Structure formats: structure tokens, C-alpha cells
Amino acid sequence: MKNIETIIVGVTSKKQFSLAVREAQKLSELFGVLIYPVHIIEPLSVKLLHPTSTDETIDKMMMKLSDEIQRLYPDYGHHKIEAPLISVGNTAKELAHIAKKIGNSLIVVGRHSSGFRHMLGKSHAERLVKYAEGPVWIHPDKAFTGIPKKILCPVDFTTSCQKAAAEALSFAEQTGAKLEFVHVLPEVINYSDFDGYLSTNSGVTEITDDVFRKEAETQFRRLYNLLNIDEERHPQHVRFGDPSAQIHILAKEMKADLIVVSSSSNHKLEKMITGSTVRHIIHDAKVDVLVVK
Q1: What is the spatial distance between Cα 61 and Cα 68, in angstroms, rounded to a whole number?
Q2: With DSSP H G I counted as helix, E B as strand and the rest as coil, what are the percentages for the chain, rounded to 5?
Q3: What is the CATH number of domain 150-288?
Q4: How far apart, in whole angstroms, are the C-alpha atoms of residue 282 and residue 235?
Q5: Whole-prediction pTM value?
């Protein structure tokens, strides 16, 4: 990855977060960067567990948590792990703030992939993507832990997606991973700025699947030329349907262990009706997700 000097990893003593720690260690070793373990204590948690808490009580809590976090970090040798940073505040906002303060950081966090908490809706990971100014790596608790060997990068041909595609390509070149791209055309097609490249001003009188497929293929050629992507090494796919569902289906078909996405989407109507595609990808993914800002 480009310009990454540190990895901020959000940790607790929970299993899914200890797995995120392992993921951060492997990435740290790969890129030769520092790890900053960070644990955020939500204010409500402090009040519930210690209703009469004083500053001394909070200090003791932090010392205990620091010891627990240190035990999550076995010494693998050459890559450096900084002392744990523990803070009280909103988890997503605090992690984003710390990453911004340190600079050139990749944030790595764990996420529940099943169970009641997963069904509740927005996770800390989804909120973090909203506030973070840099890339966020999300590791579901049941995902493969290690350097990805197969990467899927969804694109919608916007400028932000070009950046995600460039990061995916850079990562694939650094690791030797197989990389494939996909563009998904939603079933809702009757609005003017569809995907940002085909509109009612295009001179197209009859819109069909073939029209959109050919236009998508044209956009892929432009993207590949712009980023100097080898089409034979990095195949492209055009699919129709719900974007997040189709992305997960293809990821499963190609046995991808990382999905690289841009944090923004150009599907304005889809955002209004169903919410961001990126949010659905993060919430439902069974593999790691790298969100590029």
C-alpha cells in the first residue's frame, strides 16, 4: 500500500479483536511499519461498570487493560509494536482522531460476522469508515488471517474508485496476489446520472442490458489504460443486480480473501433507498474489507 507508515489497531481482549491484532502484525511485517494498539473505553461502559468511578479507578482500569492488550502481542521479531494507547470516548471518532494525529495510518479493526450484535445494525467498523480520513482494514472474526492471495475490487469508474483500484493494484503487486475487478449494474436504471457515465443526454433512445454492458466495458478499458492494468493478469467482470449481493457472490466464486472498495459510491438513488453499497459490503462480508478513502 502507498504512503502507509503506521498501523492503528483497535483492540480489546475479545476473540474477534485478537484476530485483528494478528492480521495487523502480518501487515506490519509485510509493509515494515509500526503498530499502535489502541483501546477505546466508551463512557457509558465506565458508568455502568463503575458508577462511582474516580480518576484513580479509571487509571487502574487502564493499567489492567494495558496488561491484557500487551498479552495479545507475542514477539514476532523485527516489526515494532508501540506501547498500548488507551482512551475514553466514542470508539469510531477516537480511532479516527488518533489515526489523523499520527498520520499516514492504516486502521485495522475486528468485526462480528454473526450473532445478535451483528444483526443489530451499524457496527463500530461501519461508523469508523464514516469518520476516518485514511484507509480502514476490517477483519471479520471468522475470516482467514494472513496476507490475502485473491483480491476483488468493485469499481463504479468515479475518481474515488480509481484510487481504490490503484491501491488494490499496488497491494497485489507487493504481495503477488491475484486481483480481479467487477462493476455491478443495479436493476434500477431509470434515472439520469446512472453510474455517472450514461445519462439521458447520451443519445441512447433504448436502454438495454447490452447498452450498459458495452458502456461498462468501455469504461473498464479507460480505467485499465489510466492505471496501466494488464487485462490478462487482472480479469474484469460486469454483473447485474444488487451491487453488494453480486460482489459477495463473486467474492465467494473466486475465493477472494480481500475486498478493496472506495468509501463513496456514485449510486445516488440507491443510497437514498437502501443505503450505501459500501456499508452493506462491510456488514455482510465474510472476508477482509479494505476501505480506501
Answers
A1: 11
A2: 45, 20, 35
A3: 3.40.50.620
A4: 23
A5: 0.83
